[in-house]
Amino acid sequence: MLNVALPKGRLGEKVYAMFEAAGYPCPSIKENTRKLIFENEEKQVRYFWVKPSDVSIYVERGAADIGVAGKDILLEYEPDVYELLDLNLGKCRMAVAAPKDFYDDGEKTLKVATKFTNIAANYYNSIGRDIDIIKLNGSIEIAPILSLSDVIVDIVETGTTLKENDLEVKTEILPISARLIANKSSFKFKGKLIESVLKSIEKQVKKDD
Ligand code: PRP
């Protein structure tokens, strides 16, 4: 059996559709239940839905052989896994955003609110800017509005959340998309199975291009 961790939610549904089209269907997954684990014995595949930010934990520790995680999560937590393929799904950007009239004159320590403390620290370190990181868990856009921070480092997809909160992108840090990842020892011991999934998924990615 190949254990596959899928990110629960909209992205996960697209990812599952890709696995299905690649020849690894599991029809019971579409039944509207609260079950979290589904398997197709004939295809030797078992899917489970986990929180998107937890996928890499399951894969790193071998509870899942492969999984799909956003590049943001991989950069933030740096899990010890193989990154096999860019699925070209869930595309967005990691960006610095702030109120329209904000200008960083570089004079005092910059207050940065974010869920992605590692990504933010690495970015500001690379440009030699002193920052004070404020770790938040969601609704990051509120921070500069209430003067909790000067700027935010967050994911921007359509840009609607920024716009509706009178913020704008100041700098784009990185493009983000979903990646197929594998546990390192599974890649060795279930190599054939993982290789064949990888090849079929690769074809789907090219087709969708
Ligand atoms: C993400 C991100 C932004 C929003 C960007 O939030 O943190 O708030 O999506 O999308 P947009 O550019 O299309 O508006 P998410 O929905 O994951 O919630 P949270 O960060 O507030 O938990």
Q: Count of helical segments?
A: 8
Oligomer: single chain
Helix content: 25-40%
The Rg value, from CA coordinates, equals: 19 Å
Q: Could you list the spans in which at least 5 consecutive residues all have pLDDT below 50?
A: none
Number of E-type strands: 11
Please give the alpha-carbon distance between the first and last residues.
30 Å
What structural category arises from helix and sheet content? alpha/beta
Describe this structure in words.
The protein is α/β, with parallel strands linked by helices and 209 residues long. Helices cover 33% and strands 31% of the residues. It is built from eight helices and eleven strands. The protein has helices at 10-21, 55-60, 71-77, 117-126, 142-145, 160-164, 184-189, 191-208; strands at residues 2-7, 37-40, 45-50, 66-70, 82-86, 92-99, 110-114, 131-135, 151-156, 167-176, 178-182. The strands form two sheets. It has a six-stranded mixed sheet with strand order 2-3-1-4-11-5. Strands 8-7-9-6-10 form a five-stranded mixed sheet. Strand 7 (110-114), helix 4 (117-126) and strand 8 (131-135) form a beta-alpha-beta unit. The protein is elongated, with a radius of gyration of 19 Å. The mean pLDDT is 96. The chain binds 1-O-pyrophosphono-5-O-phosphono-alpha-D-ribofuranose. 1-O-pyrophosphono-5-O-phosphono-alpha-D-ribofuranose (PRP) is lined by residues 138-141, 154-161. 1-O-pyrophosphono-5-O-phosphono-alpha-D-ribofuranose is lined by residues 138-141, 154-161.
